Amino acid sequence: MDSKRLTPPALESLQRVRVILCATSHPGNIGAAARAMKTMGLNRLILVNPKIFPDPQADAMASGADDLLANAIVCTSLTEALQGVVLALAMTARRRELATAPLWVRDGALELVGMAAQGEVALVFGNETSGLSNEELAQCGCWAMIPTDPDFSSLNLAAAVQIMCYELRMALLGTPAVPTIPTMVDVGQLATHDEVEGVLSHFEQSAVDSGFLDVASPGRLMLRLRRLFARARLEREEVNILRGFLASFQRKRG
Amino acid sequence: MDSKRLTPPALESLQRVRVILCATSHPGNIGAAARAMKTMGLNRLILVNPKIFPDPQADAMASGADDLLANAIVCTSLTEALQGVVLALAMTARRRELATAPLWVRDGALELVGMAAQGEVALVFGNETSGLSNEELAQCGCWAMIPTDPDFSSLNLAAAVQIMCYELRMALLGTPAVPTIPTMVDVGQLATHDEVEGVLSHFEQSAVDSGFLDVASPGRLMLRLRRLFARARLEREEVNILRGFLASFQRKRG
Question: What distances in angstroms separate CA B204 from CA B82, B98, B207, B239, one per listed residue?
């Protein structure tokens, strides 16, 4: 793993995603949302009837995503903001009286990404306290929920934007090419079988010399050590370090 | 889908997760991180040398997660904060000179959840600007990165906490029947962080005694050994074996 860059088609899809914030009360949240978007490579911000915008608090919270604020489009209705989209995904914190149950955000992101290959799409967020109105929810083709703790579901607006944009990016990155633990084997030069056997013999001899290992009843000691080294996938340099240690002990004793 | 409640074992695992914030500069970020944690059902916050805490800004940003701040534990070192954990996952924004490549957060969450079934685990976040020091990173068994846009990776601290806690909850909701690396976890009782530190100190002292390690120019020796042990996920019995070895060498010399 060296970078997690999007492919050109995935980048194009990401450019087709509008993030629409409706009736946001606190300008700081607009700035923080812009920053959250930009970290995930999204840059099209639309504000529907923001209470206060532009505002120095928005600028302060954007820290580096000022370009998104400068290019933000301000609309007076969600209808206007949704012009031309093929799919709008509304974020909701509760089930309400939606005709169909909302998706979980991970599935919602996959849905949106699938449509973004074909046209403009939108992610729609409501007011910090009251969320989206029923009329606004009804204008969106699907709904998504973040699986919060049922006892404390009070997500900050920018935090919800962050999670959703992260899921969009993950969906576009697709199944990770890297295995779960890529890392444990690809770094140093791995020790060969006989090098590992060498350090095991060295340990055994040292342990016998020091009286730790009784040749007559060795028990499971060497077996345990062998399992440990096998699991660790010893590297050549590590073998050298361990043998250096052991040799120094033997010299000291000799 | 009507609710997304965690099963009792998953809830128990979540209670074993410590969120450790190191050297946080802005108290507002501590409060926002607490809120982010609580939305995902995490509640154990540990602060290592926070610049300012407690503080009204932290309270204001916690909005409803005040209990996490009230119960937060303040420590003076990461070592202290990691006492008793079987796995610490450090968040990093760049590859640095880590011996092994970091995991992506989704895989890191699976890893952590797998270990949380067996013991205490920790998520470790660094300072807003400088991240974690190399010494702090070295104390953690694995590292994870959030796949941000390579051109703008400036995630807010609380946003990073939010994503990671969300991924933990998602991992627990999807609780895979088998852990990611079954062979590494289902065998013996895992050693705790301080037990591993103990065997490392023992190695170091023995190596100094034997003349293998020059205190004046230690080089990368102990760092290499630390990485090897972190990778191997030492079990308690293995720690005992290694310490037995070392003690026998020292007795023989004495």
Answer: 20, 21, 5, 14
Nearest to B228 among A32, A38, A232 (CB): A232
Edge-first strand listing for the sheet containing B121-125: B73-75, B44-48, B17-22, B121-125, B87-91, B142-145, B103-104
Cα distances (angstroms) measured from residue B79 to each of B125, B134, B143, B193, B233: 14, 14, 16, 8, 17
Taking the C-alpha atoms of residue B54 and residue A91, their distance in angstroms, rounded to an integer, is 33
Identify the segments of chain A with pLDDT beneath 50.
1-2, 175-186
Q: Is A19 part of a structural domain of the chain?
A: yes
CA gap B156, B146 in Å, rounded = 12
Using the beta-carbon criterion (under 8 Å), do B101 and A224 form an inter-chain contact?
no
Whether residue B205 sits in one domain with residue B160: no
CB-CB under 8 Å, A252 with B253: yes
pLDDT at A63: 93
Contact B141, B102 (CB under 8 A): no
Considering chain B, what is the average pLDDT of its residues?
88
Q: Which domain holds residue A206?
A: 182-253
**Residue B162: half-sphere exposure toward Cβ, Cα within 13 Å:** 31
Question: Residue length, chain B?
Answer: 254
Q: Which residue of B has its CA nearest to A32?
A: B156
Task: Give the number of domains in chain B.
Answer: 2
Contacts of A75 (CB under 8 A, 6+ apart): A46, A47, A48, A49, A81
Cβ count within 10 A of residue B126: 24
Give yes or no: residues B53 and B71 share one domain.
Answer: yes
Interface with A, mutate which of B245, B246, B253 (most A CBs under 10 A)? B245
